[in-house]
Amino acid sequence: MKKNALIFFIGISAVAVVFYLLLKTDQELNSPKATRSQTPHIEKKLKKEAHLGEEILNSEIKHLAKQIEKSISNSEYFNSLNDYRKKPEEIIKSFSATELKNYLINLSSELNNCLKKDFCDTKPDADGYFDENQTPAHKLLGRSLLILNKSNDDLQEDIPFLDFLSYNNEDILVNTSELFLKSSPTQDEFDDFLKKTRGLQGGSKSIVYKTLLMNKNDPNRSYIIEEFTNQIKDSEPNTIISFFQSIKGLNLSEEELEKLASASCQLKENQITWNSFSHHFNKYSEEMGYSLSASQICL
Questions:
Q1: How far is CA 165 from CA 103, 112, 113, 161, 234, in A?
Q2: How far apart are CA 5 and CA 125, in angstroms?
Q3: pTM of the prediction?
Q4: Cβ pair 144, 188 in contact under 8 A
Q5: How many whole angstroms separate alpha carbon 24 and alpha carbon 59?
Q6: What is residue 268's DSSP assignment?
Q7: Exposed/middle/buried for residue 145 (C-beta within 10 Å: 0-12, 13-18, 19+)
Q8: Span 189-228, pLDDT tens digits
Q9: Measured between alpha carbons, how far is 167 from 295 in angstroms, rounded to an integer?
Q10: How far apart are CA 9 and CA 65, in angstroms?
């Protein structure tokens, strides 16, 4: 009996010692002293990674500058736009409004030309990856259009809006659509713009039409709704789902919502897409205080 008690006592003691050592080690690792000793190493690593990222970005900008007219790339505007630490508002305040507008229009045209030619000579990275909608030129074009949009309430200049619709890039599509509405388009220009959107699919079509419909008081709103309704009837399921997924924030009337939903009833052919559509539609209808439901509209 005494022997068993002794063995039990030794076992308990050993466990206690191991537990103490583990606890002490954990406390030391998490102590302020340990944290301070690791901080310089972490900071050094972060600085190295940031420097490497900056080098890559600078290399991309230099390469892009060679693909456009020197009169545009050798400019303080170009350097400022490519300094992504600067917010658009900061750039707008730094230059003459008229001169900045003219430069942005010229730069956008140059970027559009070299993108159409060969993606501004963008090459795949070391891993062979290449996104034809997210090149440095796309990024700069989107930023240029954003600043042009923020700094101008109306535009009468000749801007290749239809070309910009070809890019599956959210920044480009949103700002292109907003700038187009600001340009006071003629009926023929509006027809051409909406006709161009017929070739868009998935998220691209959703982005454009959500942007066009943001202004509830736009005089062309009923025309936009009519065109979009017709396009939905012939659209792929993912295009329709994409729009209704991002519908929050749009102030659609009950009549407009019902019209768009009625054109989407073909989604009932697939239970998965129908469930997704119904969920987003019914959620929006409820949030807006409407009595509409997908199942009632698509009997």
A1: 21, 11, 14, 6, 19
A2: 69
A3: 0.79
A4: no
A5: 49
A6: G
A7: buried
A8: 999 999 999 999 889 999 999 999 999 899 999 999 999 9
A9: 36
A10: 78
